[in-house]
Design a protein that fits this description.
about 425 residues; alpha+beta; Protein Transport Mog1p, Chain A; 3 domains; 6-stranded antiparallel sheet; 9 helices; globular
Length: about 425
C-alpha cells in the first residue's frame, strides 16, 4: 500500500484491540509510543507535531478509539465464505469502480490520504484479520519524490523501500478477473499482509489480506474475492483488444498501452548492470494539460504522462526502466524564496519513512535544459538522483530512481538532460 503501510496495519490492529478488548490507558499509551517511535527522525518539527497529533486522535487514552464502530463478522462465521455483494462506484475524476463479493459488510470508506489514496473496502474478520481494498491513485503520480509505479513493479519497490517490514516469500504473478495481478507478502511486527496489485485505466488498486503471523485460516480469501471482481468503467468504455493484450504482457493498463502507440520500443524487464540503455524515442512533455513545453529523448515510450498530483503539480512523464528503476519528470509551482540548490539541500521526508540520506553535496552544471542543481540520495534500498531547475514560475524535476547495481540508468538521465529542447 504505500510507505505508511506499517502504520495502517498498526492502526487497524488498534481499532480491533481497543474496540473489542478491555485495553486501558497504559496499553494505549504504549501503542501510541510505538507508533511515534516509527516516525522518521529527520521529520521537521512542525510536520512531526502534526503526525503525533494524528496518532493521538487515532488512539485516545480514554473512551472509544476512532473508527471503533465498525462492521464485524459474526462470531463463529466462516471468514472465507462470500456473503455480501459490495459496489464501489466510479468517481468523477475518472477512477473506475467495481463490484465484488465479500465475506461481510465493509466499514464506511476512509477519507483520502495526503497522497491521494482511498481505502474503499475494509472488512473486519475478527482475530486480527481483515480484508482491504485501497485505490492508491493514478499510476505515475509523484509523492515526496516517489512515483506510484505500475502493478508489476509495486511489489519490488515496496520491498526495496520497506523500512518497518520484512519480505515473506517471492513476488508472484496471478491471472484474476480484475486483470493481471502481482502479489507479495510481507510482515510488520507480528502481522502478515498479502498485497495483490492490479491496474485499471491508469489507476492503481491493491487488495490486502491482513492476519497474524502463522494464521492460515483465511488463506485463499483474496483469490476468492478477486474471482468475483467486475469493473465499472468511469467512461462507459471497456478496455480490451490489442491494447489489453499488450497490457497483460507489459504490466501496464490497457489505456496506457494504447497511449504508448502500436510499435514503440519497450524497455527491458530488468536492467542489466553495466549496460547503457539506448535512447531512441523522442517524447513531448507538457507543463500543463494540452501545452507542449519541451522535448527530449528517452529509452522507451512513457508508461504515463500528464498525471495530476496535488494542486498545481503533475507528472509530465513516467518512464519505466526496470522493476526498480524509472525516470520521472515532474512539474510544480516554483517557490520564489527557495532556489533549486537550496531545495536540494534538505531532503523530502515522509513521516514514517523511508528516510533519504545524501551521498554528496549539491552540484550545479549546465546542460541543454539549462543550469540544473543535482544531488543523489540513498532511500532505503534504492538510490535516487535528482536534477531540478526553475523556469517561468515552475520547478522542473528529473527524478531517476534505481537499485545500487543499476548505475547504467544514469545514462538515461544524462541523455534526457542533454537532448532537452524547450518548445515554449
Amino acid at each position: 500500500m504505500r510507505e505508511a503501510l506499517p502504520v495502517v496495519v498498526l492502526v487497524l490492529g488498534a481499532v480491533y484491540v481497543l474496540a473489542y478488548l478491555p485495553a486501558g490507558p497504559l496499553f494505549r499509551w504504549r501503542l501510541r509510543r510505538r507508533m511515534v517511535r516509527m516516525l522518521d527522525p529527520g521529520l521537521p518539527p512542525l510536520e512531526r507535531e502534526r503526525a503525533v497529533e494524528v496518532v493521538r486522535r487515532t488512539i485516545p487514552l480514554r473512551g472509544r478509539v476512532a473508527g471503533a464502530d465498525v462492521e464485524r463478522l459474526p462470531a463463529r462465521a466462516d471468514p472465507t465464505e462470500l456473503r455480501v455483494l459490495a459496489t464501489v462506484p466510479p468517481t468523477p475524476d475518472g477512477c473506475p469502480g467495481f463490484r465484488v463479493w465479500l465475506p461481510w459488510h465493509s466499514s464506511p470508506a476512509a477519507d483520502a490520504g495526503s497522497d491521494g489514496s482511498r481505502q474503499v473496502v475494509t472488512v473486519h474478520l475478527g482475530s486480527g484479520r481483515a480484508l482491504l481494498v485501497v485505490v492508491l491513485g493514478r499510476v505515475g503520480r509523484v509523492d515526496t519524490g516517489t512515483v506510484l509505479a505500475t502493478a508489476a513493479d509495486r511489489p519490488a519497490l515496496g520491498r526495496a523501500l520497506g523500512v518497518h517490514t520484512y519480505p515473506v516469500g517471492e513476488v508472484l504473478r496471478a491471472a484474476t478477473a480484475a486483470g493481471p495481478a502481482w502479489r507479495h507478502t510481507f510482515g510488520a511486527g507480528s502481522t502478515v499482509v498479502t498485497d495483490t496489485h492490479v491496474d485499471r485505466d491508469g489507476w492503481a488498486f491493491v487488495v490486502g489480506l491482513v492476519r497474524r503471523d502463522g494464521d492460515h485460516g483465511v488463506d485463499g480469501l483474496d483469490d476468492a474475492v478477486l474471482a468475483t471482481w467486475e469493473w465499472i468503467p468511469a467512461d462507459g468504455l471497456a478496455a480490451d483488444g490489442p491494447a489489453a493484450d499488450r497490457a497483460a504482457e507489459d504490466g501496464l493498463t490497457a489505456h496506457q498501452a494504447a497511449a504508448a502507440g502500436p510499435a514503440g520500443p519497450a524497455c527491458p524487464g530488468a536492467a542489466e548492470p553495466g549496460a547503457v540503455p539506448a535512447a531512441p524515442v523522442e517524447v513531448a512533455l507538457a507543463d500543463e494539460p494540452g501545452s507542449t513545453a519541451a522535448r527530449c529523448r528517452v529509452p522507451c515510450a512513457p508508461t504515463a504522462a500528464g498525471v495530476p498530483g496535488s494542486p498545481g503539480t503533475w507528472t509530465a512523464a513516467y518512464v519505466r526502466l526496470s522493476p526498480t528503476a524509472s525516470l520521472v519528470v515532474a512539474v510544480h509551482p516554483a517557490d520564489p524564496g527557495v532556489p533549486p540548490r537550496d531545495a536540494l539541500a534538505v531532503p523530502e521526508v515522509v513521516p514514517w519513512g523511508p528516510g533519504a540520506t545524501p551521498t554528496g553535496d549539491v552540484r550545479e552544471r549546465t546542460v541543454a535544459a539549462g543550469t540544473v542543481a543535482t544531488r543523489t540520495w540513498h532511500v532505503a534500498g534504492l538510490v535516487r538522483t535528482e536534477a531540478r531547475l526553475d523556469r517561468r514560475g515552475r520547478t522542473w524535476r528529473w527524478l531517476l530512481t534505481y537499485a545500487p547495481d543499476e548505475t547504467a540508468a544514469l545514462a538515461v538521465l544524462e541523455d534526457a538532460l542533454q537532448t532537452w529542447r524547450w518548445e515554449d
